[in-house]
Fold this protein.
Amino acid sequence: MSNNIEGKVIVITGGSSGLGEAAARLLTQSGAKLVLGARRLERLQALAKELSLADESVVQTDVTRHEQVKRLVDRAVQSHGRIDVMINNAGLMPQAPLERLKIDEWNQMIDVNIKGVLYGIAAALPHMQRQRSGHFINVSSVAGHRVGPGFAVYAATKYAVRALSEGLRQEVKPYNIRTTVISPGAVATELPNSITDPDAAERVRNFYASAAIPADSFARAVAFAISQPEEVDVNEILFRPTRQEL
C-alpha cells in the first residue's frame, strides 16, 4: 500500500534543525524528494550529506525575504518539475512580559512567524494552482490556542498562522489543494534559545527540561497529514507532551 509520501516533492523552511530537521529525516525515509531552506547553510549541507540529498536540494533561505523564499520554491520546481508540499516551519519564540518593551523582538517574530508563512504561501501557491494539487503545512503552536503571561506577542503570531491557514483552506478549494496547521506543545528543539529575557529563559528552560518530547513527534504528525488519501484534508493537528498542562 502506498504511503502517499513516496515521490512527493516537499519543501521545508527552517530545515536545518529542530522540527524541520526531524521532518526531513522521516520524510526522506518515506521516499519523499526534499528541498530544504534555512539561514545556516553549513547545517543544511551537513544534513543533506547525511540524508544523501543532492547539492541542489539545499538553499540558504531567510524567510523574512520574499525573494529568498521564492528562490527556494523555484529550486524545487526546477529540480523536480513540481512542488507537492510546502512546510512553512521556520519560527522564533523570544518571550518576555510586554512591559519589557522588547520591540525589536516583536518585529522579528512578526517578520519570521507571520510574514515567513505568507512568503511561503506566495512562493508555492502559483505552482500549486497551475498543477491543481498541493498541500500547505503551516506550523503554529499550542500558544496559538492559549495565551499566557510573557508570551503575548509570540501567541499573537501563532494565532495569526491559524487564521491565515483557515483563510487559505477556504480559498484554495477550487484547486484541490490541502491545508494543515500543526500546533505543537513543548518539543525539544533550539526554539527556547531565542529567549533573551533571563526570567523567561529560565522558566521555559526548566519547563522544557521536565516536559519536552522529541522532535520526531512533530515529524510523525507531518507524515500523518501528508499520507492521507488525496481526498482527505487534515486541517488541524494539536498535540502536547502528556505532562503539559497549558
